[in-house]
Specification:
The chain is α/β, with parallel strands linked by helices and 630 residues long. The chain contains 19 helices and 29 strands. Helix 5 packs across helix 6. The radius of gyration is 24 Å and the shape is globular. It starts with 14 loop residues before the first helix and ends in a 13-residue tail after the last helix. The structure holds 5'-O-[(S)-ethoxy(hydroxy)phosphoryl]adenosine (WTA).
């Protein structure tokens, strides 16, 4: 326990958790990492397998295009699967899965390795080569994990599109990545209904012409359209002799790209973040091990979706790299009743639960009786991610779910960072609503407009001052925008796009986005994407979308639209527009509220001033309107 008395409400680590923890003295680890950044990461990297040792841990000669473990040869999948299969972990459970309809499947490390090899052979037989992009669009089913691993095994890049996105979002991502292969499921179960993923994909493929082969995983068994010469069933391919049990792994450079993941930025279309085999592997392995304190006997559950970075890093790669047993659930938390999650924690004896504040707030609404019906004593650690957690939700989670025995790891990070950046470990005293301090080896600061460190408790721009191994390497096919968006405001510092403050104890408090990214229920969307979905409707000439505070979702989307000349506002138009956005972009992007207006506030150069709309909606006085046209 630290000597210094911390200010505010503080929760100290329980004795039993501390005794168990890999990191007992956080300050010491952090100080050693600060002293020798490369040594710290190299030591972690040595716990993993390399076909060839690296020459240099960090190469910053071409910054901001940093490179890690330069000259090293590896493959993340070797470390996720093969490495364990040669040890006693061969028979350990890698993945436990429950479908929303109650189906259950499990895979040992051996079995997951087999399936991955078989599917990797299928992909190779279809002509997928090292460096090719493969788009994956599925619900939360084990085949999604298998598909990702199979791509990585042969050195191809996966581009997973979240199953909650729809036609235009999928088409755009396929086209931008120039994927020749799409892996999709017939459908998925959500809230007792079937989401027709294959049908959505068919529509998207009419707009994106690059795809030559579509591999369809049977999940719901619904009738789907199969285009001859293009569409093939996954299970049929996996039964063919081409799907051999062994698959030569592609040995790749540490810097070989592992995947693309599209995310919303400040302006324009979503851009693909590029992550690599070597650095991303070391970063996710190390952070998961220390933060969720992974031990051999653990059963770990990250309740995110594999279609977002949280799922990539902490459902798929991080847990497998650590050789842990990971649980995955297909459906909605409240289906058929609001005790579904608590029931599964009890049933499978899960030790760690990692989720988003919005889920906690959503479940909180149903009251304590639902969790109290279940034995949740297996839980040791809890976690949250995606948006700031309000102290009320934190305390409910801590008291009702964790029974005041489970520290909460509030992890701040981004698609771009690939790994936890501001986060406690179980040994760190917690303050509800703060992610505490940067992970060892990570240096972060809060800058004021001039790029000077803000005073304690002064709000400013959150920046990262050190390179870290799991950092994005670039934006796919857009290196200029990579430099522009992240490295140009303050020389030498990475701009996160968030505002934050740091208290007198050095604890970070993240406030929220300062750009046009909207976090809805923890999902990351861009104003521009929502606006372009609205404008693609025949009745709409112009649109502006902003996020406004929402009790459960954190933020809700509010849109303002100008109708095309000659179009009258009719009954049902607003509903039509909302459905149109859900059809084009996804149900998560459906605006809460749409207002028809005659004009939108703009700068002289014609850019919509969303800030003004937001201030107006919140009844605030928008500051600094000098560039405003009207
Ligand atoms: C927000 C999700 C407060 C933040 C892993 C960041 C958070 C954006 C937290 C990235 C947290 C994430 N507390 N805010 N613990 N975690 N955020 O790329 O605004 O989907 O910039 O990655 O989520 O969202 P992304």
């Amino acid at each position: 326990m630290p000597d210094k008395k911390l200010s505010g409400e503080v929760f100290y680590p329980p004795e039993n958790v501390l005794r168990h923890a890999h990191v007992k003295n956080w300050e010491e680890l952090s100080a050693s990492a600060e002293q020798d950044l490369e040594g710290f990461w190299a030591k972690e990297a040595h716990e993993l397998h390399w076909f060839e040792h690296w020459d240099k841990v960090l190469d910053d000669s071409k910054k901001p295009f940093f490179q890690w473990f330069v000259g090293g040869k590896t493959n993340i999948v070797y470390n996720c699967l093969d490495r364990h299969i040669t040890t006693a972990r061969r028979n350990k459970l890698a993945l436990l899965w429950e479908g929303e309809n109650g189906d259950f499947r499990s895979f040992s490390y051996f079995a997951l390795g087999r399936e991955t090899c078989k599917f990797a052979n299928v992909l190779r037989a279809l002509g997928v080569q090292k460096g090719d992009r493969v788009t994956i669009y599925m619900g939360r089913v084990p085949e999604l994990v298998i598909a990702m691993l199979a791509c990585a095994r042969i050195g191809a890049m996966h581009s997973v599109v979240y199953g909650g996105f729809t036609v235009e979002a999928l088409a755009e991502r396929i086209e931008d990545s120039q994927s020749k292969v799409l892996i999709v499921s017939d459908g998925s179960y959500q809230r007792g209904k079937v989401v027709h993923l294959k049908a959505i994909a068919d529509e998207a493929l009419q707009r994106a012409a690059t795809v030559k082969s579509v591999l369809v995983v049977k999940r719901t068994g619904e009738d789907v359209y199969m285009e001859s010469g293009r569409d093939m069933w996954y299970h049929e391919l996996m039964a063919l002799p081409i799907a051999g049990n062994n698959c030569q792994i592609e040995i790749v450079d540490a810097e070989h790209p592992l995947f693309l993941l599209y995310t919303s930025g400040t302006t324009g279309k979503p851009k693909a973040i590029v992550h690599t085999h070597g650095g991303y592997m070391v970063g996710t392995y190390t952070t998961l091990k220390y933060v969720f304190d992974i031990h051999e006997e653990d059963r770990y559950w990250c309740a995110a979706d594999p279609g977002w970075i949280t799922g990539h890093s902490y459902i798929v790669y991080g847990p497998l790299l650590n050789g842990t047993t990971s649980f995955m659930y297909e459906g909605a938390p409240t289906y058929p009743y609001p005790n579904r999650w608590w029931q599964m924690i009890e049933k499978y004896g899960l030790n760690i639960l990692y989720t988003a504040p919005t889920a906690i707030r959503g479940l909180m609404r149903f009251g304590e009786a639902w969790p109290n019906r279940h034995d949740l004593s297996s839980l040791r650690l809890l976690g949250t991610v995606g948006e700031p957690i309000n102290p009320e939700a934190w305390k409910w989670y801590h008291r009702v779910i964790g029974k005041e025995k489970c520290p909460i790891m509030d992890t701040w990070w981004q698609t771009e960072t690939g790994m936890f950046m501001i986060t406690p470990t179980p040994a760190v005293p917690l303050k509800p609503g703060s992610g505490t301090k940067p992970f060892p080896g990570v240096k972060m600061d809060i800058y004021n407009e001039e790029g000077k460190s803000a005073r304690p408790n002064e709000e400013g721009f959150l920046v990262i001052n050190t390179p870290w191994p799991a950092m994005l390497r670039t934006l796919y096919n857009d290196a200029d925008r990579y430099v522009e968006q992240y490295w140009s405001k303050y020389p030498g510092a990475y701009l996160t796009g968030d505002s934050a403050r740091r208290d007198e104890d050095g604890y970070f408090w993240v406030i929220g986005r300062v750009d046009d990214v909207i976090k809805v229920s923890g999902y990351r969307l861009g104003s521009a994407e929502i606006e372009s979905a609205l404008v693609s409707h025949d009745a709409i000439a112009e649109a502006a979308a902003i996020g406004l505070p929402h009790e459960v979702k954190g933020n809700a989307i509010h849109a303002y639209v100008i109708l095309r000349a000659g179009i009258q506002k009719q009954d049902g138009l607003i509903d039509q527009l909302r459905s149109h956005v859900a059809h084009e972009l996804g149900p998560i992007a459906k605006p809460e509220h749409i207002e028809v207006v005659d004009s939108l506030p703009k700068t002289r150069s014609g850019k919509i001033m969303r800030r003004v709309l937001k201030a107006r909606a919140l009844g605030q006085n928008p500051k600094d309107l000098t560039t405003l046209e009207e």
